[in-house]
Write a structure and sequence with these properties.
Shape: elongated
Order of helices and strands: HEEHH
Radius of gyration: 15 Å
Helix content: 25-40%
Number of domains: 2
Length: about 80
């Protein structure tokens, strides 16, 4: 599905509701340059307790969640 989005004078875009839903529950996105464009995917920015509530019921252990959140934080770099 191709979608045309406008870039504002402030270099911002607004995602349509259906596209935003495809990213899932996230407050941040990762954007990666790929040949001919950009790849956007949702990034996890949550506390360990929030991760346990969301993913614990699927069998993820606290140790796995802690490591996953650590990796995401390293990828995001220092907070703004």
């Amino acid at each position: 599905m191709k979608v045309l989005l406008k870039i504002s004078p402030q270099n911002q875009i607004t995602l349509r509701r259906d596209l935003r839903a495809m990213l899932g529950p996230c407050s941040y996105v990762e954007v990666e340059p790929v040949k001919g464009g950009l790849m956007m995917r949702g990034a996890v920015a949550m506390t360990l307790e929030e991760a346990q509530q969301v993913y614990g019921r699927h069998g993820f252990t606290v140790e796995v969640l802690r490591e996953a959140l650590s990796i995401v934080q390293r990828r995001q770099g220092p907070a703004d």
